Amino acid sequence: MYYCLLVLFGVVGASLRYALGLLISVDQFPLATLMVNLLGCFLLAFISSLLTQLPYLANTVASAIGTGLVGSFTTFSTFALESTTLIQDSNYLSAIVYILVSLLGGLFACVLGYKSSEGLLTWRKK
Amino acid sequence: MINNFLLVAVGAAFGVLARVLSTNWIKKEWRYTFPLATFIVNILGSLLLGLVTGLSLGTTFSLLIGTGFMGSFTTFSTFNVENMELLRMKNYKHFFVYTAASYIFGIIAAFIGLTFGNLL
């Protein structure tokens, strides 16, 4: 059951990533991957924090969404390859901006997702 | 167009399974706080994506193995959530090592894969 959900959500996550890549294309800068990765960080932190509060069934589904959908939506390999390509093309400024925004933005998006989730949980308890 | 999505979907189905099975296996064997499983998957995936891209196998293989399989095998979100957890646990040493090693070795791995693929 869990593995079926995982594959299903994984396929949806990767297809969304591919679709966004087709929609968003900017010359000389991998904006699509950056947006996908930052959005995914927010969502996974949000879901992970909610997980601890959910009953068993909802927990399984939420875990499959986090690991499958969000895990496949975001990608590290494409980020690494795009950074390499920017450096090889002597596009150093874009490479530095891409790596730094991924690094700091990814962590910031996680904290934001975590805080939003905590906020939602305390709001619901009131 | 539909065919392209199908290629990505098939690759992703195997990619996500490969990620979950291998990370679960590594987590069982590795009992320390350092998130080694995601690290290994991300570096290996970067190396292989570079290799596949360097080999220039055409659109079909690029979508199936690159965008689909490697894209889903590696993950940026889990990497960052694990990093946030290390920060919350005030484990700054592991946080620093995990972040620096992932970015540096990830990019080097992609470079090695790409260069090697171009040579073959």
Automatic annotation (TrEMBL), chain A:
Na(+) binds at residues 71, 74. GO terms for biological process: cellular detoxification of fluoride. The keyword Cell cycle does not apply. It catalyses: fluoride(in) = fluoride(out). GO terms for molecular function: fluoride channel activity; metal ion binding. Its main location: membrane. It is a multi-pass membrane protein. Keywords: Cell membrane, Ion channel, Ion transport, Membrane, Metal-binding, Sodium, Transmembrane, Transmembrane helix, Transport. The chain crosses the membrane at residues 31-51, 56-80, 92-114. It comes from the Bacteria. InterPro entries: FluC (IPR003691). One of its GO terms (cellular component) is plasma membrane. The keyword Lipid biosynthesis does not apply. Na(+) is not transported, but it plays an essential structural role and its presence is essential for fluoride channel function. It is found in: Cell membrane. HAMAP family: FluC. Belongs to the fluoride channel Fluc/FEX (TC 1.A.43) family. Fluoride-specific ion channel. Important for reducing fluoride concentration in the cell, thus reducing its toxicity. PANTHER family: FLUORIDE EXPORT PROTEIN 1-RELATED. This is Fluoride-specific ion channel FluC. It comes from Tetragenococcus osmophilus.
From TrEMBL, chain B:
It is a multi-pass membrane protein. InterPro entries: FluC (IPR003691). Signal peptide: none annotated. GO terms for cellular component: plasma membrane. It comes from the Bacteria. It catalyses: fluoride(in) = fluoride(out). It is found in: Cell membrane. The keyword Protein biosynthesis does not apply. The keyword Membrane applies. GO terms for molecular function: fluoride channel activity; metal ion binding. The chain crosses the membrane at residues 32-52, 59-79, 95-116. Na(+) binds at residues 71, 74. Na(+) is not transported, but it plays an essential structural role and its presence is essential for fluoride channel function. One of its GO terms (biological process) is cellular detoxification of fluoride. Keywords: Cell membrane, Ion channel, Ion transport, Membrane, Metal-binding, Sodium, Transmembrane, Transmembrane helix, Transport. Fluoride-specific ion channel. Important for reducing fluoride concentration in the cell, thus reducing its toxicity. Belongs to the fluoride channel Fluc/FEX (TC 1.A.43) family. This is Fluoride-specific ion channel FluC. It comes from Tetragenococcus osmophilus. The lineage of its organism: Bacteria, Bacillati, Bacillota, Bacilli, Lactobacillales.
